[in-house]
Amino acid sequence: DFIKHCMSLYNTRFSDPDGMRRSVLRAEVLFHFFRHEWPRFDFLPELSKICCPTLVLGGEEDPTTPIEDQEDIAAAIRPDLVQFHRFPDCGHGAYRDCPDQAIPMIRDFILRSWQEPTS
């Protein structure tokens, strides 16, 4: 029922209608995660330990990680290492919902991070 009723809420647009068909879904893994792992799935206190450039792309329509949580994630990472971008009308995957904006951003981030050493 989760897949049937909730999966369509993850993204605001589907650029690849065959994407789910090509995906491997293991219901037992999904249900184990939601029953046992998700309630303890909070890495926020550990994010301050990140010591490399980090890109956070936040979809304002994300039902899984609300934009306020994504702002908290970005705020928990050293300011000199994090880049945070909000995407209006995007769900859980900004690169899927807004590829024209997100993909160049990701590409530039990777190229810049590859060339600039961190301290």
TrEMBL record:
Coiled coil: none annotated. InterPro entries: AB_hydrolase_1 (IPR000073), AB_hydrolase_fold (IPR029058). Pfam families: Abhydrolase_1 (PF00561). Residues 39-95 form the AB hydrolase-1 domain. This is AB hydrolase-1 domain-containing protein. It comes from marine sediment metagenome.
